[in-house]
Amino acid sequence: MTSQQQPGVLTGYRVLDCSIAMAGPFAAQRLGDLGADVVKVEPVTGEWQRHAAAGGAGGNRINVSFLSLNRNKRSLAVDLKTDAGREVLHRLVASSDVFLQNYRPGVAARLGVDYESLRAVNPALVYVSISGYGEDGPYAQRPGQDLLLQAMSGAMLSSGRAGEAPRAAGQYIVDAVTASTAFEGVLAALLHRERTGEGQLVTVNMLDAITTLQMQELSVHTVGGLPQTRSDEPHAHVYIRAPYGAFRTADGYIVLAFPPLKTLGEVLGEDSFLDMVDEEHGWSHRDEIFATTARHLGTKPSQHWLDAFAAAGIWAGPVYGYADLLQDPQIRHNGTFVTYDHPSEGRVTTPGFPYRFSATPPRIDRGAPLTGEHTREVLGELGLEGAEIDRLLADGVVVETA
């Protein structure tokens, strides 16, 4: 950090990221964006995500998946299955604030890096454990994979046509919300520690994260007693009246969100809508309203309808692809994407930060590291002499990559 750079909100905190794939690394990256010193503790062969490129998007030395989830981290590559490797980690834990892992239940204990073992080393440690379904229980050993959790949570049956196969979200939505949940858990636990000096165990599981995300929908079911019933038309949400969803126009698609039916009828020239009551017919005639609206919207281009709906005060908007999103003026104004130079991957553009701080803004200090790129640096900070580090390297306990 140069003298001109302001410290981040979490500058001075050290986070040990022992997680793999998306949820854990994404949470740790958010902490790094806020200034925390995040040390990615990975196997000597590199974390799993280094070898699994989403979309087949490889790179020069780091694939895009890994690059996108591991900026603002240093890499320590160490074999935790060895006594010497565990000793290195324990020494690092002693001077760290947060330990984050998403091992399958039971693995952390076998490696000697479970909460009780590390709390004995550092009682003030905030220890975050992420799992698929929970630390124990009948599903504890099931694989916590995004699509499986989307399906199990009920979310996939809140949209689409009745009788047709449910459609998954076009994002790794369960991983993403789990990452945000873990990020929140870390901040809350650190605040508690600042007030009391006490560390603690924080557990997060993907099933609870995606379930509680549906707070409103599930409460409508459990409190309101309304069944989750899909309609024949591709309505976008079972608990919102018609019309609500994506519609084809003469040259593309737009989305339309529960407009007043009388106003919609006036814009479309559809007399049958003029005497309808929104909160009555919007439910009882949901398929009819959707189909009639779709027929009208298909006759003219998207911009015609967007202009007409804007003039009438109706909520409508374009359906973007990623290329469109990048060019959107509000996205550009917000600085939603960041562009920086990576040592091996060149100039890269990725999504930036979801928050703003006036005094301690997030920033990118380094791109995603190579496997063990900072092994020697991190071990030197622990007080290990050069000869001792060389011995660990020679024994294969740790590796470094230049």
From TrEMBL:
The keyword Secreted appears for this protein: no
GO molecular function annotations of the record: CoA-transferase activity
Pfam family, one: CoA_transf_3
Superkingdom assignment: Bacteria
Keyword Transferase appears in the UniProt entry: yes
Keywords: Transferase
SUPFAM superfamilies per UniProt: CoA-transferase family III (CaiB/BaiF)
Record-given protein name: Crotonobetainyl-CoA:carnitine CoA-transferase CaiB-like acyl-CoA transferase
Species, as recorded: Pseudonocardia hierapolitana
Lineage: Bacteria, Bacillati, Actinomycetota, Actinomycetes, Pseudonocardiales
